[in-house]
Description:
Blueprint: E1 3-4, E2 14-15, H1 18-31, H2 36-43, H3 47-54, H4 62-71, H5 77-82
Antiparallel strand pairs: 1-2
GO molecular function: DNA binding
Protein name: Helix-turn-helix transcriptional regulator
Amino acid sequence: xxxxxxxxxxxxxxxxxxxxxxxxxxxxxxxxxxxxxxxxxxxxxxxxxxxxxxxxxxxxxxxxxxxxxxxxxxxxxxxxxxxxxxxxxx
Length: 90
């Protein structure tokens, strides 16, 4: 689902359809039983950035996905990358 940007002058960025990014972030936040602002606080990111992810306005970079796994180890890496399967590890 994701593909990495290839412009070496820019930070590596993940590109996905807006609806897929929104689905992944909404599902993760819901599975963690958090509000968007609570997720943002725990991740150390701005509330607007987190909101933009849930609305599909922005795509995360690889570091952001790694940070989700670090802060919330119960979240499935496969789900973060594909949006398929269980949100939380079983």
